[in-house]
Amino acid sequence: EHEPYSSKLRVPEALTFDDVLLRPKESRVEPDEADLTSRVSKTVEVSVPILSAAMDTVTEADMAIAMARHGGMGVIHRNTNIDRMVEEIHSVKRADELIIPHDSVVTADPEMTVREVDEMMVREGVGGAPVTNTNGEVLGIISSTDIRPHLEVGENDSVTEAMTDEVITAPQDIDAREAFDLMYEHRIERVPVVDDENLLVGLVTMQGILQRREYKEAARDSDGKLRCGVAVGPFETDRATAADEAGADVLFIDCAHAHNLNVIDGAREIKEAVEADVVVGNVGTREAAEDLVDFADGIKVGIGPGSICTTRVVSGAGMPQITAVSQVADVASEHDVPVIADGGIRYSGDAIKAVAAGADAVMLGSYFAGTDEAPGRVVTMNGKKYKQYRGMGSVGAMKSGDADRYLKEDPEDDEEYVPEGVEAATPYKGTLKSELHQLAGGMQSGMGYVGAETIPEFKERAEFVRVSSAGQAEGHAHDVVITDEAPNYSPDE
Ligand code: XMP
């Protein structure tokens, strides 16, 4: 008897987003009540389980700040030198800081005249400044209100004549509530923070406190600073320790094939050297997860699903994303290691399907690349606005330094690059806030259809059905001409 297939062709099937749908279930959960709180790594929680990709056209400090303020987290790309990366981490960590640190506080010198102080405050864009002597001792505080009467009659008056010398100060361990109450009680806008010897340590402002209140959902560390992720190469221990010291919460070992055993060795070495959580990726199989669970604080999944990726066509290797996520999650969940689904997410429905397959959080590139907060400027082509978006394995990105993500040496000649990504443009989308709102809102709707109020409950309850290509077509807008653009749907051409 003949076997109809050779053994090489008796192959398992692997599925992706469009192949499946969530089976609707009995529910009393209204979408608005669904709680998206989840983890991106063992110790880092977010209120919205969404990350912006570590790509040079997606995440630098501006994006990371906006992502964290709205409850998610940005992962700063690694196509920069270490100093610049440290600067970016500092910008994120300082963005919503309660206490502005001493070296960033604008201070006045007692020798200055009121005119000089006025000019300095205008130049620095502040409405007031502590007056300190050369030792850093706080002598008083001056504001534009104190200065105004002097400007008319004696602009060469010394600042010490105009300042308030009975200064209300705060101790270093003050929290936001106490600072607010103190300023409210004394009707003041800013409070110098001092040590036991009355030396200036920092400044708390009412504006800063109100700004923090605006972002109730923000993902913050234990000091109240915004969360920040950063990508590092598997062999970049220096970059990893610098990022760790700069205060990054999660390091993402960034490699296109993290089941390469040298990459795993490198990742282990980095994990030993740092305090921050270390997420390792990308992988796409059960066996890879088994090799990572004993040390990784999170596992990132995605071999070739990305919108700008050509890994699958160039190398012939890959794993459709729903199968990849579920295989990794089967192993990782046994060890309580969070899983991140990275790449290929076009709609909010894809994001919540990834969670149903076992992901704790999702990472997106193209979805965010068109927003104001992404690096790069808006360009107009044929009357439509776009922003640049390129794969980190594209020739352009590799030339600026990221070839080792694809485990390649930098060639001498540009023509020798073997890219695994393309350089592209993506429609301009406006603010990140509205994009995230649509994404998170759609995910909550998915939880409503399944009847789950929390992410862990959703992962437990969610079931898939398999969709035929006819079913897939039925799911999209069909047999109509769309007249008004929806904020969360643009059909593929
Ligand atoms: P999306 O679909 O959200 O995917 O745009 C973003 C993810 O794609 C990965 N990435 C690449 N994969 N070649 C690849 O094969 C590339 O040049 C490339 N650049 C980024 C990465 O995991 C990212 O988060």
TrEMBL record:
EC number(s) from the headed UniProt entry: 1.1.1.205
Positions bound to NAD(+): D254, C255, A256, G302, I303, G304
Domain CBS: 99-158, 163-222
Pfam families recorded: CBS, IMPDH
Catalytic activity reported: IMP + NAD(+) + H2O = XMP + NADH + H(+)
Region described as Disordered: spans on this chain: 473-493
Annotated binding of K(+), by residue: G304, G306, C309, E474, G475, H476
CDD domains with a match to the protein in the record: CBS_pair_IMPDH, IMPDH
Key words, A-Z: CBS domain, GMP biosynthesis, Metal-binding, NAD, Oxidoreductase, Potassium, Purine biosynthesis, Repeat
PROSITE patterns per the UniProt record, alphabetical: CBS (PS51371), IMP_DH_GMP_RED (PS00487)
UniProt activity-regulation remark: Mycophenolic acid (MPA) is a non-competitive inhibitor that prevents formation of the closed enzyme conformation by binding to the same site as the amobile flap. In contrast, mizoribine monophosphate (MZP) is a competitive inhibitor that induces the closed conformation. MPA is a potent inhibitor of mammalian IMPDHs but a poor inhibitor of the bacterial enzymes. MZP is a more potent inhibitor of bacterial IMPDH.
Assembly information from the UniProt record: Homotetramer.
Name used for this protein in its record: Inosine-5'-monophosphate dehydrogenase
Organism: Natronoglomus mannanivorans
